[in-house]
Amino acid sequence: MIKALLVDDEPRALKTLQLTLEKHCPEVEILGTANNIVNAFKIIIEKSIDLIFLDISMPNGSGLDLQEKIKEMDVKVIFTTAHKEHAISALRLDAIDYLLKPIDKSELKNAINRYFNLKQTHKSTKADKAQSRLTIHTQEGVNIIDLSDILYVESDKNYSIFHLANNDCQIASKPLGTYEDQLKKLGFFRIHRSCIVNLNQISKIKRGKSCLAVLKNNVELEISKSKKDQLLEALNNF
Q1: pLDDT surpasses 70 at 140
Q2: Answer CATH for 133-237 from 1.20.1250.20, 3.40.720.10, 2.40.50.1020, 2.60.40.10
Q3: Where's the Response regulatory domain (predicted)?
Q4: How many other C-beta atoms can be found within 10 angstroms of the C-beta atom of residue 178?
């Protein structure tokens, strides 16, 4: 459900919008109404509002003033107004939409769909960002590493040594197996019982007395016989 606030200084317009939302947009839960931006801001803070349906011309400050005030908050705005001359200013303030009164129910539904699409994109972006980093526990505390910086991870008994692109090493106070499942989903492969490598860092496979993964920085890592074919398949599918 979308937690919504309706803001308009005209009681009739406020009631009409409320009835339209209740009838045609059941995904919107109206948590409050306000007839000026001062009261509106109080409700936003108290009730963790997701979306505001906001008039522009009101006493004690305009809807544009409120939009400017909340621009750093996780609250979105759909402007509902009779004044089309403010459209450019409203959209520059990152409004979801700008609906002219009398509000068409189809345009209202489209605006709400845009809100859902924006939230989904935001969630996907956050998920992608979370998957691009790894949190490890060290003796000094907790470190966050960009996955692209990890060349390979080496086992050292109950510890794991993360070898990084800047020639740095970070020692995690957990065994290698702790990270295997997570890293496997993110482009890493366990080439040996004591080593997990970043597939992006492998430049070639060297055959000889033993099979070696050669990294872009020319480090050579031994591949166990039982892992060679699986590694080649992983590289082909990567």
Answers
A1: yes
A2: 2.40.50.1020
A3: 3-116
A4: 15
